[in-house]
Automatic annotation (TrEMBL), chain B:
The chain crosses the membrane at residues 12-36, 71-95, 107-131, 137-158, 187-208, 242-261. This is Spermidine/putrescine transport system permease protein. PANTHER family: PUTRESCINE TRANSPORT SYSTEM PERMEASE PROTEIN POTI. GO terms for biological process: transmembrane transport.
From TrEMBL, chains C, D:
It comes from Demequina mangrovi. Keywords: ATP-binding, Nucleotide-binding, Transport. Transmembrane segments: none annotated. PANTHER family: SPERMIDINE/PUTRESCINE IMPORT ATP-BINDING PROTEIN POTA, SPERMIDINE_PUTRESCINE IMPORT ATP-BINDING PROTEIN POTA. GO terms for cellular component: ATP-binding cassette (ABC) transporter complex. Residues 11-240 form the ABC transporter domain. This is Spermidine/putrescine transport system ATP-binding protein.
TrEMBL record, chain E:
Belongs to the binding-protein-dependent transport system permease family. CysTW subfamily. PROSITE patterns: ABC_TM1. Keywords: Cell membrane, Membrane, Transmembrane, Transmembrane helix, Transport. It is found in: Cell membrane. InterPro entries: MetI-like, MetI-like_sf. One of its GO terms (cellular component) is plasma membrane. It holds the Pfam family BPD_transp_1. It comes from Demequina mangrovi. It is a multi-pass membrane protein. The lineage of its organism: Bacteria, Bacillati, Actinomycetota, Actinomycetes, Micrococcales. This is Spermidine/putrescine transport system permease protein. The keyword Nucleotide-binding does not apply. Residues 72-278 form the ABC transmembrane type-1 domain.
Amino acid sequence: RGNGGGTDAGCVTTDLSDAEAVLNMSNWPEYIDEDDGDYVSTMTQFQKDTGIDVTYTPDVNDNVEFFAKVRNQLGACQPTGRDMFVLTDWMAARMIEAGWIQKLDKANVPNLDKNLISSLQGVGWDPNRDYSAPWQSGFSGIAYNKSLVGEVQTMDELLTRSDLKGKVTLLTEMRDTMGLLLLSEGADPSNFTDDQWGNALEKISKARADGQIRAFTGNEYINDLANGNIAACVAWSGDVAAAEDENLVFLPPQEGMMIWSDNMIVPVQGTHKANAEKWIDYYFDPAVAAKLAAYVWYVCPVEGAQAEMEKIDPSLVDNPLIFPTADYLAQTHGFMALDEAKASQYEKEYADVIG
Amino acid sequence: MTRLGSWIGKHLMLTLGILVLLYMYIPNFIVALMSFNDSSESRNLYQFQSFTWDNWLNPCEPQGMCESLRVSISIGLLSTLVATIIGTLAAFALVRHRFEGRSTMNLVLFLPMATPEIVMGSSLLALFVAAGFGGQLGFWTVLIAHIMFCISFVVVTVRSRLAGLDSNLEKAASDLYANEWQTFWRITFPLVFPGILAAALLSFSLSFDDFIITNLNSGTTVTFPMFVWGAAQRGVPMQVNVIGTLMFLLALGIVIGGELLSRRRAHGKASAL
Amino acid sequence: MSLADQARGDLKLTGLHKRYPNGFVAVESLDLVIPQGSFFALLGPSGCGKTTTLRMVAGLEEATKGTIHIGDEDITYAKPYKRPVNTVFQNYALFPHLTIAENVAFGPKRRGAKDPASQVKEILALTELTEQAGKKPAQLSGGQQQRVALARAIINRPDVLLLDEPLGALDLKLRRAMQVELKRIQEEVGLTFVHVTHDQEEAMTMADTVAVMNKGRIEQMGAPYDLYTNPQTTFVANFLGRSNLIKGTVVGREGTGDDAVVKVDMHGTIATIKASKVHTDSDHGWVGIRPEKVLIQPAGEALDAPGAALSGAVVVDASYIGVSTDYTLRMPWGQEITCFEQNTGRRGGLIPVGTKVDVSWRPEFAFLLDSAQDVEAGLEED
Amino acid sequence: MSLADQARGDLKLTGLHKRYPNGFVAVESLDLVIPQGSFFALLGPSGCGKTTTLRMVAGLEEATKGTIHIGDEDITYAKPYKRPVNTVFQNYALFPHLTIAENVAFGPKRRGAKDPASQVKEILALTELTEQAGKKPAQLSGGQQQRVALARAIINRPDVLLLDEPLGALDLKLRRAMQVELKRIQEEVGLTFVHVTHDQEEAMTMADTVAVMNKGRIEQMGAPYDLYTNPQTTFVANFLGRSNLIKGTVVGREGTGDDAVVKVDMHGTIATIKASKVHTDSDHGWVGIRPEKVLIQPAGEALDAPGAALSGAVVVDASYIGVSTDYTLRMPWGQEITCFEQNTGRRGGLIPVGTKVDVSWRPEFAFLLDSAQDVEAGLEED
Amino acid sequence: MASLQRVFGKNAAYLLIGPAAIWLAVFFLFPMLSLLTTSLSDPATGSPINGYTLTWRIGNYVEALGDYWPYMARSLMYAGIATLMCLVLGYVLAYAIAFKAGRWKTVMLVLVIAPFFTSFLVRTLSWKLILADNGFIVNTLQTLHILGEDGRLLATPFAVIMGLTYNFLPFTILPLYTSLEKIDPKLNEAAADLYASPFQRFTKVIWPLSLPGVVGGTLLTFIPATGDYINASLLGSPNTQMVGNKIQQLFTTSGDYPHAAALSVILMVIIVAMVMFYVRRAGTEELL
Ligand SMILES: Nc1ncnc2c1ncn2[C@@H]1O[C@H](COP(=O)(O)OP(=O)(O)OP(=O)(O)O)[C@@H](O)[C@H]1O
Ligand SMILES: Nc1ncnc2c1ncn2[C@@H]1O[C@H](COP(=O)(O)OP(=O)(O)OP(=O)(O)O)[C@@H](O)[C@H]1O
Ligand SMILES: NCCCCNCCCN
Ligand SMILES: [Mg+2]
Ligand SMILES: [Mg+2]
């Protein structure tokens, strides 16, 4: 059911890519490599190769928050000022369903079809990858600062251990935090009941009331973790390793962890779709993908990147955070697809507990 | 008692006052210090690592920061201009004229100052959305909002200056053959000007600094405070401290420079003859 | 070099009336002719309408009735900036943001004068302000500011210059010095000055003509000497200087023309008063005698004044003020009267309180006022 | 009912000195004894240190040297709120947020008086303010405000009441009325009043003792009559009233004791001056004659003063001020002197400008001052 | 002619006031009205994108108050304490500037306003740095045993209130200064002369005369502080969230405009009621 304008109303602009060699995109913080001394980042290289001037804004901290920022424009068929967003699967699905996302021109993204890893093909919300292209995948688990506290193995420890009191953060992303809690409840995040949901929520509520939780965060947890303002938290896999702080440890809770993917999508009023497609195609080149993965330490969605990694940093070739084995993937879970009513019910309940 | 001790005893209030002032400057001091922090080595942004000029030499390095600064300054200047003009006119009406609805107007002018920003910002957002402008949120809606909340402050500032103006001066001017227009431009305006200037400065700082109302009505437009807010999520780039310090020094420079200039001018003219 | 080279006219106020919006009538049917080139002083108690009158002349207030003419021109409704009239305001109202020279040049520039700079120079020299030209008003002393206000007005060579207590804010010594200055400048430029003041001495020493105003009307006007020696109402008698007013009954009128006199019985003594100084037709009246006309001598000593002499008065107070002494005497009929005596030194000291004295005055200086008038009129009310 | 029921002491200032932080010495080694219960007036030109002196007595400014005693108690460094001294400030400094009654009750309440209300009632009655008790200061007239300031201070029955130009802001008529009031109250309550004023007439009529201050020192003090008739310096001679100072050379000293006199040659005329009025040891001096002691008569007419008489003077200006006339005379040696003449009416009018006159004065009223002193001292500087 | 001029004069007043009146009517009063209608709309049938229809749903208010009253109470308490702190600190500084600064008056006044130009977000963030758990201040306090071993300042009510105090201090100081500066120093001397000790001088003279500034300054502090959420966000924890956080969250992430609007209206009503009561008590109505 298309919400608001969408494609039905013919809300697609003409592509100005031929005239304007620019690309405006929003992505999550700390999600791309940066120039440093002699090191030339993938993005700089892309701009050199294509002549496209990229304005890259790392302003996505939380899917819902970002959605709130753009929903009015998208709904009214107004430009958001962005040609591309990188949003998590469920949010990408919601936007595609609303008719706010442009179809990619397959001819322009040959690398996508050629190199997308099999586990990310044929997702229910975009079976042919007509609308989206994965940027990175990752896991949500526990991180802690080992200079401050001992190992934190389970979510229950995280929420109750007294040495962590007031030094724990959880993510504002409902699916990450609640997924882990459902797991610790013994429930399956991809298929759970309202009761299980309620129990999991109660756990947070209690921990919060006890003063165990210091904050609900987006990506900013990483600084506080390094600095010692927090001792342990729910974290995203790549961030911890990429922080290059030997005290910071990421580990899957004993109950298992969550997996997700972030996807590049082009909104209907994005006026530089062809440039966006060039970007997608470029990042689906295995060499580029390997270079990016070596920097951000997230799961690389590009087939052939593992081989290219050999040339860049052999020590990373077997890193399960980047190239997870089937075994490793066995302990990961996805979050149940929710219809609109359930989604907004859960989101409201979650918001009330964390806000 | 030591000499310092007795000085402090005699100047207790002044000493305490200076302490309060120092308290107000603790963050500014840290901001200035951090603007010289070399953060390239480690991503830990909470500690002073080592000294560098780099941040000052490349203030615009962080993606989007200077763009957001440009947006903030444009909005600041535009809203200052419009609010100052509209507000000054209103102040004149309120001080110089007795008209029906004057007290209502006084109330309407007071209200925005008595309304929490979150309420003002959200009501404006509700209006924009209800009026079908939800999609147009951005530069113009922010500008409109800023003008709105600056007007009251301008009126209050200019009004008090105007009320203190000796009305005999205008009468004297008209006695000396100045018509209404000349009286305004040669006497009233120059005398009220310091008040207008103060109002403009206040407007600019309020607009430049605003986050709450802006955040609600900006859509995807990013102002400097919004950039900082967003950047706080990933660790504020040290260049933000450069901009913070720079703006502060600029303001201080303008005010103190203006003061010195006017003093020197008064002095210079007196000794010129 | 006199500035008064053009022919100008007299200032004529006819039936001038001012009712303020709140209904208060500040000026009531005022008639006045002020001859061109004269120095005219307007005296009167606070609130009597002096400022209102001046403001109507300047055009800063609109008359509700009556007309204002300068020469033949009716300026009753002209805009203030179109009138050949300038005002020196009580608190000067100098423009604080302009230098002295710019303040002075303000009028000429508005009128598009050809060479304001040289005019300014000339006027600043006249008012001895040349050295202050570049300063701002706040940098000047009170006296200097006063001169700037004057210069700023005079430079326009208005037909009429209005001065609303321009010296009110100065202390006594400075005030006296400024009076001399003002008078000098008026004589030099020859403009018509209309000067409002509370200070009687100031009015009398400076003006050609003094008008005493009371409750929105002119009570009496004339040359200072005439006004002082021959007041027509108790108000004027009390307000302009001091007067001893003693109850009297007319017992006869004699002579004609310049020699006509009226004989008045004053508690048993007969006083002879010139008909020109009699301002009542009734049989009762107030005999007015100025304190300096009251001559006294301890009882029994020779008293050198012809005419009325009385004995049986007692000194009840003696107040030494250096140049003179004020005696308060209790008269045989109980009334207290005031006597002013110059300390010439002839007496060798003060007359002690309690001394019995004889009192006399020359009859030609007494005046007779209407007994229906309030004997306290013109004295400070609370 | 007098309030002066307790025994209090004299106010003694000894070697009092005040240097302001900027280095300016406002008061230099001032010695002064003010007897208990007296009305003392401090006169002096602007900036001479009067206010500074009072503020040191009140404790609002700290003396840099010297001591202040009341009776035997040293209060030099006492806190202002612990001194038995109160001040009536120039602009009254009434508390705008308190009613008149609350203003007046302020002091007693601070001291924890038992029944402030009845004290306030009494004082308000004394100062005729009973009806104003509930009003705020802004609702009162200037004169009423002045009385509140007075009441607020008097109610505390301080040993010493300081008045710093309390009448300075009032207009002349009101001022004269308030002087009478002030004097009445002082006599009624019997406190020591120290009164600073610019107005000489005020000082002379009100005070038992007048001190003339100049540049941080007391130049001369004494009873008004003594001070006026026998000034010791040109400053006092010029500042307190006016003086004609004429160059003279001592030609001889005669007699002894009370009869001792000094003979002075004044442009050819010999003046005989009492030794008690001679304030110089040198051979040259200024002979001082007060304008009211200068008697004139058109040349040839009889002049009734014994002693020195001169002819050849010419009237160059006559200024009529009602009660008297000021004549300016050019003397044969070119100097201009001032003559004050009461308009007794004896002369029948003014002496016209240009008239040749004879001049005389009684020798006992002349005084001789040191020729080393500035003849212009005490006159208004610009 | 006279009356003609008067009519024109009146029109001039309307011409002058017009732009401000229109601007505020359209972009302040009207939005407030629109906020009111949104607050009475059904959240179920509308959305931020498609708008809401007025159904007079009072339930929004009941729910908003029921669910969020702790936030409201916390806001009022934090803002109240911060306002008191501002009053104390601000009074000291305003007093020093007005009476003791001498020729440094202007300079000090400028220094009060200058920090405005360093974005307050930047300054608030640097408090986060200053108060960090492993920072100098916390360590010192721990060494002095003022704070326990695992004691902290950040993410406590203290940090939030301190942040509010810090950020709104200039708004207290300026009105205070304006009214202190108007007080004639002679009044203080007169009080000293009339046996008032320094403390009594303050309570009986200076303080009552500065009341307009006290009222103005506290209002300008309390009102925005109550609605603030930045300090609670950056320096607080989930347990120190203020009503502003909630309103902002409902408007943005939750997209629940009716409840957000209802909460805003409640906040506004409470503030207006408190202001009226306060101003009446302080007897400074003419101030408004
Ligand atoms: N705008 C006004 N509205 C109503 N009444 C006024 C107005 N201006 C003056 N008055 C009243 O008119 C009367 C005359 O005022 P005016 O200023 O002319 O007196 P004045 O003679 O100049 O007194 P002063 O010597 O005190 O200056 C006073 O009673 C005053 O209160
Ligand atoms: N706080 C101060 N710092 C420096 N100099 C001062 C200060 N207060 C007063 N003075 C100077 O001290 C001198 C005496 O001042 P004071 O106020 O005592 O004079 P005054 O005799 O009362 O004068 P006036 O008659 O004008 O009131 C003046 O020259 C004045 O400029
Ligand atoms: N630093 C990059 C973090 C990317 C996180 N993506 C979040 C997905 C959450 N479900
Ligand atoms: Mg007047
Ligand atoms: Mg003084």
